[in-house]
Amino acid sequence: MSHRVLPERPLPGHAVCLDLRAGGPDDPGAAVRAALDVPQPGGERRFLVVDEAAGLVGHQLLYERLSSYGPAQIVCLAVGARGDRTLRRTLTLRPPAAGVLWLFDTTGDTTGDTTGDTTGDATGDAAFLRPLVEVLATPEVFDAVLGSLGEVVHGVAVPAVRVLEHDLTDEARARAWRQAVEGLTGPEVPAGSASPEGVPGALALLLGEGVPRSLSGHDWLPAGGRAGSRLVACREALDDAVDGYERVRGAAGLLAGAGRDVDLPGDIERLTEELARFRAAVADAFGAAGGTRLTAEHRGLLRDRGVELPEMPREITRAGIVPALRDHTYELIGQGLPLRSVAARISALSARTAPAGSASRLARLDAICGPERLRRLGGRYSFTAGGSRPVAFALTGLLALLAGVWPVLGWFLGPAVGVLAAGLAHLMLRRRPNRSPDGRIDGGGATGAAPRLVGGVFGGLVGAGLGQFLGPPVWAASAALAVSVVAVLLLALRDWNRAVDDWWARADPEEAGRIMREIHALVVTTAVHDWLFAEVRHHCAAGAGAVARLLRGLAETADAYGGGSRTQDRTSEWGTDPVSEWGPDPEPEWDAGTVSGWGPNRASWTDEPSRPAPGPGPSVGTDSATGAWSWDDWRDDEEDDGWSDMGDEPPVRRPGAPAATPPPSPPRAPSSPRPAPARTVSADVPGAAFSAGPAPAWLERRYGDGGPALVDTLLGDLVAGTVLLLDGCWAGIERDPGGAEHAAQGQRLAELLDETRIRLERDAAASPPPPYEGLRDLGALTSLAAFTDRSERPDAARLTGVAPDAVARLLLAEDDPGGTVELCGPEHLRLLSHDPLAARQVRFVPEAMRRGAAGDDIWRGTAEDVVWTGAGRYAGILRLVPLRADVVHTVRAEEAGEP
After folding, report:
1. What is the pLDDT of residue 409?
2. Cβ atoms of 156 and 100 closer than 8 Å
3. Which of 138, 316, 635, 705 shows the smallest number of beta carbons within 10 Å?
4. Over the stretch 675-716, which tens digit does the pLDDT of each residue have?
């Protein structure tokens, strides 16, 4: 027999399956011990046992061991031979804790052998039993069947079955799985850069240059310290220079000599020197505590150099970094980013928060206050007043001409106005602000006195001559003289102020104030981020690096899992391709063909020439090895009660059937659509190895190419499972980010992939993932509850692409025994009970098939006795037909013997 009859691994909550038949892969005792070791949740112990009908009594002790750890529920699939006419079972297999389903000849043997050998073709055996085992192992169906067996005589029945299987094609399953794994892992992306936007507050403080609010009023450079005293001296020198500039500017500075004792060049020189000393003090502090960790010794060195550090602010602590990383990681995953993209962003955060030490700030200090800026600040700039010289010549000449129109007196007054303008220009030159009172510092200057003098004398003489010719009245000449004098004074003040402002702007002593503020801000930033936050930044960088490595490792694990290493060629699975390219079955030949209505073993027409022509079968799958039966297939006659050697007994004929004649080739019934050939199939998932095999008569397969929600559902399961398994990593990262080992998470991801792939194979991921137990921090996942809760599933049609209409029609059909296929041959019909009311029926449908708005309409009117299963891809009817009272014999313990 084939070990593929049983699932490769027990499914949570499902009955534990074991095979006690001869020729199995394990010793029966070892199989029982292994079954007892399988944990079953909720205290419910269900066992589905496949055994030979002839071996039930011999295996009495094995069945008793299944109940040795407490009450157990057992459903036994007793596989009988064609020649069996009675069933012997022990007290252990009696209701209500146990029941027996008696099957006949499940091997699919084509040799016509009737010797009772149950170890025939392994492929046929597996193709027949495997779907039935999967249906019965479902807890809801298991409980319903066991309850129904308790209502029939002896708790033994022969099943009649009609099952529809909704599944994916191998290509659709492989494509959906590949796309889901790719969506989980994502491509390799560059790290990029981290930004304070969109991250938790604790991380935003480390990514930005800001200062915590609690430290906003702290005095980082006390005035009594070395750096603080330099800063005070700089500010005093700047204030002196600004005060001197204000005194020099205006009429008082030019005419009254208010700025005579002001030494603006000396103040600027002193400002430059103090600024250089302040810069040197800050650079010394940066270099003295330039490491990446702040120690008590560093605090002392900084205090000696005038930098006073406060205690750690309350806004950020080392203990809050890993929780912030956790929240940020969950948030990025929740946004739909694949693992590698999340790892890239976390890597950028790690690089951004890694402490570089205050020594790395020296380059920035040089950029703020380097030698070039100091040299430019202390430079000497010339003083230039009066504007353009031709303009000054013409304007002064015009004003002198107006003053010279006074008759006779004009010859004196006109040139006098020119002399006044030249005198004011010379006064500007003498009181220029770029010259020290003692002449030690002098930037030079030019005010245009000569053009004004020449222009004024020339204009005055011209005006005097014009006044002699015109002879204006005295009042007009005096008015012209007043206008000329006032205009000369105002123009001189305007030129003085413009020249002083221009020189001040070129010298730009106020730039020293900006430099001081930038240096102070740099000191504060360095003190906060390179000294106070050094330990926190180091912890954050190490933790973020550990998270990024973990996520990349998980992505590599998922890629390795989904890379096809777990698939194998279907031909090597079966030895030969069970269905060659999904082509049509060959037409039967009557010298070695099949006749519908026979048992699973196919016999030639000449083996039993008295076989009748096939009767009406079920509506689908009539190319099967067994036919349908009805309650009228036998008579309740006394002569039928006696049994003789069935090797010589003619087959049962339906009432009114004609004498047997070689029938024509039987027509092929329409079969369900089959997908394009798929050459690979997973070997580690239930049912995968049989999707391409020949289906039993009672099983109709419907394949879909995948619905619109399939990939998104798989991806959501994988991502949610990844988020949940990350929950166990944060404690190790918090404790030791650099030494955290994540091999366990890789193993758990492989288990998650296994579990998700199993559900994909089992029911196209219609069933939700098992609940995750053992969360370390439920509060951390509260905001992700809608994301990690995968209990809400799409309906099966949106997952498989196959509409559930056929299932609904099957369940809504009348209670017709002809709609099911009995798992026995016609020669066994007289073993069954004559009472049609004694049969029990179990209708079962996966819950996923009735989910969704579309399903509500087609399921309306469904029988109330339908068993809605939580998982599976099978739906249908399981009819339990009881046996006659004299067919089943119960053997007591003393008669049972040893196993």
Report:
1. 80
2. yes
3. 635
4. 333 333 333 344 443 444 578 888 999 899 988 989 999 998
Torsion angle defined by CA atoms of residues 675, 677, 683 and 688, in that order, rounded to the nearest 10 degrees: 20
Does residue 310 have a cis peptide bond before it, meaning omega lies within 30 degrees of 0? no
CA distance 743 to 808: 47
Please list, in sequence order, all residues whose beta carbon lies within 8 angstroms of the beta carbon of residue 37, skipping any fewer than 6 positions away. Answer: none
* Whether residue 601 has pLDDT greater than 50: no
Distance CA 627, CA 618 (A): 8
* pLDDT surpasses 50 at 646: no
Encoding tokens for residue 182?
């790719």
**How far is residue 303 CA from its own chain's centroid?**
48
Any idea what DSSP says for residue 486? H
Q: What is the DSSP letter of 293?
A: S
* Burial (CB count within 10 angstroms: exposed 0-12, middle 13-18, buried 19+), residue 219: exposed
CB atoms within 10 A of CB 727: 20
CA–CA separation, 625 and 628 (whole Å): 10
DSSP state of 57: T
CA–CA distance from 589 to each of 586, 605, 664 (Å)? 9, 9, 10
Of 840, 843, 836, the closest CA to residue 809 belongs to 843
Q: Which residues contact 184 (CB under 8 A, 6 or more apart)?
A: 338, 339, 555, 558, 715, 718, 719, 722
Which of 165-174, 379-388, 703-712, 732-741 shows the lowest per-residue confidence on average (mean pLDDT)? Answer: 732-741
Q: What is the DSSP string of 626-642?
A: S----TTSS---GGGS-
Angle at 813 between CA 807 and CA 817, to 5 degrees: 105
Residue environment code for 448-487, b if the CB has 16+ CB neighbours within 10 A, otherwise e? bbebbbebbbbbbbbbbbbbeeeebeeeebeebbeebbeb
Q: What is the token pair recorded at 798?
A: 């949106």
CB 83 within 8 A of CB 113: no
| Cβ neighbours of residue 634 closer than 8 Å, sequence gap 6 or more | 640, 652, 829, 830, 834
The 3-state DSSP composition of the chain as helix, strand, coil percent (nearest 5) reads: 50, 10, 40
> Residue 543 burial (CB < 10 Å; 0-12/13-18/19+)?
buried
The rounded distance, in Å, linking the Cα atoms of 697 and 597 is 10
Residue 845 DSSP one-character state:
E
* Strand ranges, E, within 91-235: 98-104, 156-168
**Is residue 89 within 8 Å of residue 891, measured between CB atoms?**
yes
Radius of gyration of the chain (CA): 50
* C-alpha span between 725 and 755 (Å, rounded): 13
Query: Taking the mean position of all CA atoms in its chain, how far away is CA 545?
Result: 18
Q: Which residues of 651-671 are buried (b: 16+ CB within 10 A; e: fewer)?
A: ebbbeeeeebeeeeebeeeee
Q: Name which of 4, 52, 55, 63 is nearest 29 in CA terms.
A: 63
Whether 89 and 888 have beta carbons less than 8 Å apart is answered as yes
